[in-house]
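Handoff note, outgoing to incoming analyst
You'll be picking up this chain. Sequence as last confirmed:
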Amino acid sequence: MGLLVVASVPGAARAQDRPSPRWEIRKFDFRSDGVWRKQARQVAKNRARLLGRRQFGALNAPLVGGGGVAPSGAAVAVSGVLRVPALLFKFRDTPAAQVRAAAEYDQVLFAATPPSGRPYTYRSFYEQLSNGLLSIQGETYGAVTLDSDEVRYAGGTSTQCQKENPFGSTNCNGLFSDSAVLAMQQGLREAVAKLDGSVDWTQYDSDGDNVVDLILFLPEAPGGECGPPPSRGTPANHLWAHRFALQPAYMTHSTRPSGLHIWVRDYILQGGVGGSTGCDSTQIMPIGTVAHETGHGFGLPDLYDTVDSTEGIGEWGIMGSGNYTSPLSPSRMDAWSLSQLGWVTVRPLGVPGSYHFGAAPVSDTAFYVPVLGANPRGEYFLLENRQAVQSDSTMIGFHCRVSGLPSSCGGGLLIWHVDSTQIATGGPSNTINAGPIHGLELVQADGKGNLDANSFTSQQQSNRGDAGDPYPGVPVPNVLFSASSTPAARRNSDSLPAGMSSPTGRCPSA
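Most recent structure output, in case you need it:
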């Protein structure tokens, strides 16, 4: 469906159940220059400079001309082939029913076309997001059998782990004490050692720093995050999904012509089984978690509220809670994340008029609207049309049902309020969307602020997205976003009008 936005902008002179908690254990992360973070930082810096100068031709060059560089030669998109090895392993006591062949994982992770019953592979999801600028390719190795039972690598149980475990269980799950992390990483190193001699690790170092860019560790077991909570039985002591770096790094047998060895450091661990629920031990893992964690490898922050006071952007983007919408078909990235990586065309909305653009996954366009007057916080708005197509299909249908509507109710216009100061200050601590000002705030058309409510204190008000968020919203259509509307177009810096006056979300026929 196309979306028509009639806008007046400054000219050159002017009730659902509480969602389950997000249990991404936050103290674990890649190295600061791990995966492709170094390259992505430079891309984001180059793009911020071009955006500040309003040089949209250079900013959009990768999608217009193909490739990841502007005419000046500066990198303005994360692009290329990221080669990722997936290492499959089982424990001495892994049930035979949970064991799958490496070739089956190759189909789920690295196939260009998804297998039957799966809308995406790890590779095809990112190829679609990036408009073909990035391809994640690789191979699955194993499975190898570790020398001990699973509980040994999970770190056993302890009262110390009980203090950290979100379930309140004494299970250590490989993460909830220093000794558990040590035991878990000993298992990972053991798995690498058993496969080391059969892998040419040089093919997985694309930037020549003698470190494998990223490795996936896939134990053939569900993740510890699956639970169940103690009220429904004793949680299993499985390894908990996370991203991290081996400490110390593992030196492989592979060497460069210079004689320098290739090392294994940055990794994602995800349970190798899970299926459509994320926790079904009879099916191969979904891609939601590994896709979210890979986004961190490109320098993107968490866009949910990492101190749990609000829902942040909710399920409107995979860097929020979008990997939970559907494990097999996670939400796509929001307009800001795509812009950071150079994977969307950013079109300035600079003069009053009517603007038409298609659904985000197929139009690949977001509109940029500056704020009026002094702008000490570097604020601006990004507009995108989100409809039930491609990777948005499942999410839009879910948000319709949250609002008590048929799953076919449709999407609409999303208005993102970007605060560059909050993004810069909150980035190092991964708190971009924590606190009274969010770095990326979704303007919610119905004015109810469900995304901004605390799910632990306002159960009936908080959610991770609904049909009232995109313009025109429900149940009462809201076609105005201005300084006097609800919600209002105002600056974070001083609450004065932001200079945007826009009848929004008028939808002509598809």
